[in-house]
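Here is one chain, start to finish.
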Amino acid sequence: MTTGTVTLFTDRSDFLIPIWQDSLESHGHRLRAAMPDELGRVSVRDSGVIFDASPESYDEDDLLTAVAYVRAAGGVPVVYAEGVPVEEIVEEICRGLVARREDDLERVIAGMTRQLDHDRGRRFEFVTVSPRNDEVLAILGDGRSVLLKRPLDPSDDGAEVTAITLADDARTVTLELASGKLFELQASALAAPAGGHGDIPIDRARLGARLRELRLEAGLTQAELARRTGIHRPNIARVEAGRHTPSLETLSRLATAIGVPTTRVLSQD
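Its structure:
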């Protein structure tokens, strides 16, 4: 399935275009060639953009400006720099998507495709037990790593994790304990909101209202919930009032004390 058009900026008519085209098509992209001075007239948001870093196309300042513009405008910049030195800041802006020979094309196109997949942060890449043993380490498809303090669910009795099974769509993972208990984690509960840095992906007011609703359904007062969790009642009141977003660890403690999975607190149902 075609995912979109990737624009290649170069003023060299023989610049590897057939090779780029074949590689891009294998990942579901279309190729569009453009001249360097057309950059400001081409939509780059949510698109891959490849720059030929040859001296004929860009000097160092031009290349830095071009890749920074694409990243700031919401695109994914890629640089081909065979025999051309590239500044470290350009490498950082491109997040490593710099090719220095033809053999690198597949790597950078695959990397670009991953960065263009905005849903990747809602899928697990890998889940394991942390070296500290009382935590689960979850790695999401966007590269974010999250440490989750156990217990993670009312079914998590603290027994040793004996098996971790990733669903076919990688959106959920099931953990099996030595006690025979099973519980499930959802990647969407750990995903960062757009532009965020790992906060719980719903707004404070909605989260607070949801927590209060579930607490009342369980017949608990804020004081009783505070006693069960060790979290001071005023702090619970702040969360329920939408004035504070708790960490995932704190939310897990609250959910466990109420008797529901953390994912139920995060759900919008």
